[in-house]
């Protein structure tokens, strides 16, 4: 996937479809949908955590309030459009949080006799809880509300990872618990006649209602609610935005948001790539005991497979075959970290024997794309019937920082009531700088996975790379590998223009260099570029 492709806006409509995966669309226009809940992803989400593995900052939350049909959703979408390439933006509508109605309330609603504009009609605690989870970089499951049925549906939609969250609704500034979550509060001011005209047009076209019912509901509920509950909340707003001709206000808001995000930016990949220059107490080449790695026993079979995989003479077909064999050995060895309990069975000859049985409710695999895909076939040979997910993480060409482009996790990890009992096999081909591993582990922890329930399976680990910092940050994660190489050096991938490479010869990456000895000068190799014929591991 090229960086041009990853810069394309991708979206998932929370009210129709699976929000665990984003749909990619070419270009940066045409992102508007009929629904109010929208997730837009541009070039990916940069790190939101520090070298200690802890979250350094929250998502930026904007509250947009105003009367019915005042233009709140339009203002929210215009803010998104003005922000441009800001990664991972979500528009969260308060309409999704209407309470579940009884049969009596449903009858009143279909007769236009139920007050949907009163604060009591909205489940404010649930709205605040979902918003607080998203602000704290945790996953949330958003309720789905049907306007045609006037009822909250049983299904929910999974959402995770927005950098900017825009919460819009008539009561967005009414509840004090919600107001505490906002970094910026906006009130959309609009003329009452214009709001009524917009409401009639919207309800007739989108919700199939009659004008008479719309007017009756407006006079009985909407207008009094606006005067009593909505308009007074303008006093809590940081900015008052007109419902029309608001381009200047939108530009001011987007400039402020970009500045806030710039202040929260966090770049530390070089601290991982050259850890001993930034982390006091770390030796250049820590020993296996310090890294706490589970390395495959150095049997003749393992050494033979490693020799074939490292050889420049090995043909592609043999590389695939022997890498699958190595992946199978890694997964089989990693099974020791799962919990087991004694289990009594009766053999075919009638003898009772005490054996072992897996003692866990849920097991799943998560592949760090794209390099982790090479381990997937070997994983499925050992654990064939477990669900698989993926995390698409790619280095940004300008600064080599990791970008989270897509999250597709199994259902066990998306639900709070199952995630704590789930064991996760995380797959990646190597741990070099550890940047992708850092981000993947942080995503799993954000979802509530326990550290000691994560089993990281990888082929190669760079001893002098980010593994030492990774182990400091996540000491309870199990990491198993086939081999440990002492150092890395810096190279370029063809086809991407990066900083320090104005001619566009390639993208800067940190690569494994198994030929370097322990006494090699790390500073020299760390900044050396590869020749076209060099062989390296990715």
UniProtKB/TrEMBL annotation:
Pathway: Pyrimidine metabolism; UMP biosynthesis via salvage pathway; UMP from uridine: step 1/1. Residues 297-490 form the Phosphoribosyltransferase domain. Gene3D superfamilies: 3.40.50.2020, P-loop containing nucleotide triphosphate hydrolases. The keyword Kinase applies. It holds the Pfam family UPRTase. GO terms for biological process: UMP salvage. Residues 1-13 have a biased composition (Basic and acidic residues). InterPro entries: P-loop_NTPase (IPR027417), PRK/URK (IPR006083), PRTase-like (IPR029057), PRTase_dom (IPR000836), Uridine_kinase-like (IPR000764). Its EC number is 2.7.1.48. This is uridine/cytidine kinase.
């Amino acid at each position: 996937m090229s960086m041009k492709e990853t810069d394309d806006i991708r979206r998932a409509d929370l009210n129709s479809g699976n929000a665990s995966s984003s749909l990619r669309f070419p270009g940066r226009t045409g992102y508007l949908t009929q629904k109010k809940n929208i997730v837009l992803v541009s070039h990916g989400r940069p790190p939101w955590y520090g070298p200690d593995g802890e979250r350094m900052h929250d998502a930026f939350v904007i509250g947009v309030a105003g009367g019915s049909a005042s233009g709140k959703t339009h203002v929210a979408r215009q803010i998104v459009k003005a922000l441009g390439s800001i990664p991972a933006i979500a528009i969260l509508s308060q309409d999704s949080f209407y309470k579940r109605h009884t049969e009596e309330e449903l009858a009143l609603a279909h007769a236009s006799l139920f007050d949907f504009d009163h604060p009591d009609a909205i489940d404010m605690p649930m709205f605040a809880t979902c918003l607080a989870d998203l602000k704290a970089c945790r996953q949330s499951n958003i309720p789905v509300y049907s306007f045609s049925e006037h009822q909250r549906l049983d299904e929910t939609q999974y959402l995770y990872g927005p950098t900017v969250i825009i919460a819009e609704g008539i009561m967005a500034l009414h509840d004090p618990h919600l107001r505490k979550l906002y970094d910026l509060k906006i009130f959309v001011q609009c003329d009452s006649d214009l709001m009524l005209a917009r409401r009639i047009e919207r309800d007739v076209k989108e919700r199939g209602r009659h004008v008479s019912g719309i007017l009756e509901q407006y006079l009985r509920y909407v207008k009094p609610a606006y005067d009593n509950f909505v308009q007074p909340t303008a006093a809590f707003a940081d900015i008052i935005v007109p419902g029309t001709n608001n381009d200047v206000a939108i530009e001011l808001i987007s400039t402020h948001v970009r500045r806030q995000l710039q202040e929260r930016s966090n770049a530390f990949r070089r601290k991982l790539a050259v850890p001993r220059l930034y982390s006091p107490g770390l030796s250049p080449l820590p020993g296996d005991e310090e890294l706490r790695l589970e390395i495959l026993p150095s049997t003749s079979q393992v050494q033979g497979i490693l020799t074939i995989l490292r050889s420049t003479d090995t043909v592609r077909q043999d590389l695939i075959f022997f890498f699958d064999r190595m992946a199978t050995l890694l997964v089989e060895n990693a099974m020791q970290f799962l919990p087991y309990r004694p289990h009594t069975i009766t053999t075919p000859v009638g003898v009772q024997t005490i054996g072992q049985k897996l003692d866990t409710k849920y097991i799943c695999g998560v592949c760090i794309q794209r390099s982790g895909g090479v381990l997937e076939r070997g994983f499925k040979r050992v654990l064939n019937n477990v669900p698989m997910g993926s995390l698409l993480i790619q280095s940004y060409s300008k600064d080599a920082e990791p970008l989270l482009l897509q999250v597709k996790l199994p259902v066990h990890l998306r639900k709070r009531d199952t995630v704590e009992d789930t064991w996760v096999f995380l797959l990646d081909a190597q741990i070099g700088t550890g940047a992708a591993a850092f981000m993947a582990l942080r995503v799993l922890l954000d979802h509530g996975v326990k550290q000691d329930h994560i089993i990281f399976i990888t082929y190669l680990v760079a001893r002098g790379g980010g593994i030492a910092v990774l182990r400091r940050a996540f000491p309870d994660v199990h990491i198993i590998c086939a081999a440990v190489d002492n150092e890395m050096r810096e190279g370029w991938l063809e086809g991407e223009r990066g900083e320090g490479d104005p001619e566009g010869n390639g993208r800067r990456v940190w690569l494994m260099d198994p030929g370097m000895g322990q006494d090699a000068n790390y500073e020299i190799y760390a900044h050396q570029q590869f020749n076209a014929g060099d062989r390296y591991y990715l």
